[in-house]
Amino acid sequence: MAAKPQAAGRREGMSPFRAGIIAGVVLIVGIIYAYTQIDPFADPFRFNAVFETTQNLKAGDPVRTAGVPIGLVDSVELIGGDGAAGRATISITEDVGLPIRDDAELKIRPRIFLEGNSFIDLAPGSPSAEPLDENGTIPVNQTAIAVQFDEILTTLQRDTRDDLRTLFEEYGLIALKGGGADGFNKSIQYWKSAYRDTALASEALLGTEEGDFDRVLQGQAKTFRALAKDPQALGGLVTNFNRTAAAFANESSALSASIPALRDVVTIGRPALQSLNATLPGINAFARDALPAARSSQDTIPAAFPFTRQLRMLVSRRELRGLARELKPTIPALARLNPLTVQLLQQSRSLSRCQNRVLLPFARNTDWTDAGPDDLQSGQEPYKILSRSLEGLAGESREHDANSPIFRVLGVGGPETVINFTENDSEPIFGATAFKVNGVQPNSPLQPNGQLDLPVHRPDVPCEDQVPPDLNAAAASPSGTSGASSASAAENLTPAERAGIAEVKQGGSSSPSVDPDLADKAQSSVQELLSELEDGDAKSLDGLNGLFGQSKIDQDDPLGGGEATP
Q1: pTM, entire model
Q2: What residues does 158 pair with on adjacent strands?
Q3: What is the full DSSP assignment across 226-273?
Q4: How many C-beta atoms lie closer than 10 Å to residue 63's C-beta?
Q5: How does pLDDT run across 46-56, given as a tens digit for each residue?
Q6: Order of strands across the sheet with 86-92?
């Protein structure tokens, strides 16, 4: 049977060989994807990481997160002058590894126990951090490397091993001996709070602003660098610290007793700190108020420079020599004066205390008189009232001449007669007043027993301890006075008063020569007084008649020379 001819222009199918090659490639890709879970057609996320040393890290090493492969190491290059530090370029091919945060941490770990194969263990970072940018860099302070076996052998030298052996022996035989192990187990329940507080303290050490902890480290680096410049001083510091620790160890009993007292110090110190906190706003206010004064001192200080310059010249060696020469004869006299000033200061102190405790209270006292509110002198200080007497003295002294002093007195009269009997049986002094006498103030210091009731005078007591003067003088009844407001007033007179009045009458019975002009003036004055008395109270006129022995006062001739009848 003959074969059918092939249609013109039709191509032949794929050869078995080509199909086998394609199938093999697809099979290999599938196997690779099945084992590595890497999509060769995906667009990976790339970033860089800096390590202190790359150890055995090379391109193609896997990158894992929690044991799950998420990417590969694209390349590794050395950086830095010493050639130890390196930068690795990493590709994240799986979406489960994204996103990478800027606080991500990376660590190079060995893949097997034997060294030679490594992988990168990636911690993507905290959710609160910002996502890492494409081709961003993780700094060296966020990367770490695994400890190599040779590093362990290099570190554990003979002396280190001996120290570790001693540590384990002391820890096992002493620390855990007796109740040490039980105490260690009981302390586990406090670890949680201790670690939490430690974490909070560590976070606080980072500061409140970005770069605070870096500045702290820089400051510590400067401190350590300064300590390293002087090894001998640093050795002395360690030696002295050892001695201090030994001294504390020798006083372990006292130290143990003082530790509970620290609790009381903290308890007492807390209110003190609260009080200090309460004063801080006041200090802030003071600083705020003092700031303008401090600013104004910027102009004051330059202005004081000339004075300071002159003062510096004054105390210079050349000027001081002349000043010392001038003061040389004066200094001994000043030295002798110093002991004498002690007595002066003592007397000044006594005078000041006397002024403050005696004189000023007396001068400022306004409650010293029993005068009513209508009295012009009520409620006034004594020094104001005493100063008014100078006016009367000035008026009297104005009328004196070279022959004799002359006083002009304005005489007044009235229905009330006042008689004052003096001592030594001398003639009494009498007068007339328009108002009834209600009392006498101040009272006479003469007592019935003949003694004088004077204020206490203590010259042996210092002025500062004296009692301030009391101007509240005691009042007394009008003893030794008589009124003529009624016809019976003469009956109340004592025998001495009657004798005095009789003597006055006898002396007045004669008719002395009187100046006619003066008599006319006196007659007119008495006439006016009698008119007022007649209009006011007729009994007052009768009282005057009974007192002076006249049966009737002639209003037309009050100064008549009629004989007085008893």
Answers
A1: 0.30
A2: none
A3: HHHT-HHHHHHHHHHHHHHHHHHHHTHHHHHHHHHHHHHHHHHHHHHH
A4: 23
A5: 999 999 888 78
A6: 137-138, 45-51, 86-92, 68-78, 62-65, 118-123, 105-110, 143-145
